[in-house]
Amino acid sequence: MIMDWSLIGRCGVRYTLVYAGLTVALTYAVTRSGIVLLCLFGLGLVALLFALGGTGTVRMGTATTNADSMGIASTIVDPADMQAKRMDSDIKVLFYGIGLLVFAAVALVLFG
User: Which of 9, 56, 71, 94 could bond to 51 as cystine, CB 3.0-4.6 Å?
Assistant: First the structure.
C-alpha cells in the first residue's frame, strides 16, 4: 500500500491545526467558559473514538504480486494507484478530533 504523505500532511494541517484550532479559539473567545472548553475536549474524544473504531470499515491495501513481494521490480502498474485521491471522511474526523483534544486541553490549562 502506497502512503500519500503529502495528502496526510495537508489533511493533518487543515483539520488538526486550522479547523480544530479555530473552533476552540472562536468558541472560547465568544463564551469565555471553561465548561465549553471541557465540552470541546469531550467532543474531540468522541470524534477520535468514532474515527478509530466506530465506522466498521476495513482498509485494504493494493494486492502485490509474488515478484513484488520478493523485491523484483515489476512493470505492472495499477492505474488506480496513480490517481489523486481525496482523504476519507473518517480520517478527517480523526484529525479534527485530535485537534480538538489538543487545543481544548491547552486552552483549559492556559485559560481555565
Answer: 94
